[in-house]
Amino acid sequence: MQQLAPCVWAHVIEAEGFPTLAAVVLTSRRAIVVDTLTGPDEMAPVLEFLAAEAGDRHRLVVNTHHHWDHVFGNAAFPGVDIVAQRACPRLIQAELQGGDESRRLPPPEGVALPTITFGDRLTYADEDQTVHVIHTPGHSEDSLVVFLTQSRLLLGGDTVEWPLPNLCQHDGRDEWVRTLRQLKQLPVDLVVPAHGPAMDKRIIDANERYVDGVYEAVAAAKASGTGRGDLDLPAERFLTTGAAVDDVYRKAHAENLLWAWDEV
User: Fold this and answer.
1) pTM of the prediction?
2) Superfamily of domain 2-204
3) What is the tens place of the pLDDT at every residue in 172-231?
4) If both were cysteines, with which of 1, 65, 185, 250 could 9 make a disulfide (CB 3.0 to 4.6 Å apart)?
5) How far apart are CA 166 and CA 138, in angstroms?
């Protein structure tokens, strides 16, 4: 477990080439686990950390959205409430019954569904920390972030990503850009994405530029007669200077271009 702030720790694994993070937030009264990775076994370091450090704090799990690499470890926390945006249980069930991610088999323990859901915002106020769980659609219908007021820290889920985000929500462009612009108004010093390094708020600007830039460039190419399979729009055109793109994210960018072509 890596300490990111006085009350925040992270456990990072690799999921199909993507660095993928689960976090633990310890307040005076609560131990909050944010995301559960790809299966209960991957959460063993988190469980060990909680056993050593959480004491009698009330335990909660937060799923930042329904995708497999954020919820398949839910069964590691039997009897613990799981918090999510209200669309999340339905979307998990749809994926398990055969959706875009049906090729990923759930763990033998199954995938526990969220037990506490909310619409736009849910707040936990403790003596030392106020924790806001905020709906941030764009990457997915049910995406959320966790904002720690006193720590000035944002756990971003997949609402922000580095070096580039993954387009997954149908007709999500405008909603995602609106979400990112709202996030920039929060008093945050450190942004921790589920995929990528912790950094300052420039990651939010970078994601907004990428989303807007990809859709605009693909729309222009399509209008000029370029076919779906002929898009010549390298990732570097849309990224912050110096952002490195490995093969995993180069493939993700290629898939984003096709997604945008189908949407514009």
Assistant:
1) 0.95
2) Ribonuclease Z/Hydroxyacylglutathione hydrolase-like (3.60.15.10)
3) 899 999 999 999 999 999 999 999 999 999 999 999 999 999 999 999 999 999 999 999
4) 1
5) 10
